[in-house]
Amino acid sequence: MPIFEYQCRNCGKSCELLIRSGAQPVCPDCGGIALDKRVSLPAAAGKSAAIIRAARSQAKREGHFSNYSAADRAKIR
Length: 77
Prior knowledge:
Blueprint (H helix, E strand, L loop, with lengths): L2 E6 L5 E5 L16 E4 L10 H14 L7 H7 L1
Antiparallel strand pairs: 1-2, 1-3
């Protein structure tokens, strides 16, 4: 289920909603169904060393192969 950003025509507030296909989105503030889908920017990929280190640490805890550096992955193959 994708997350979409909507703006309510009744109350004017914006919200992000997790919507199943074919389901009618409802404003969480006023309960209105007159919502306009908005274009939202995708999240930028993390480039800092701290973000990469945290992601590798989490992958290691979860047992994913992605916690290895490119040099380590080349040794394993």
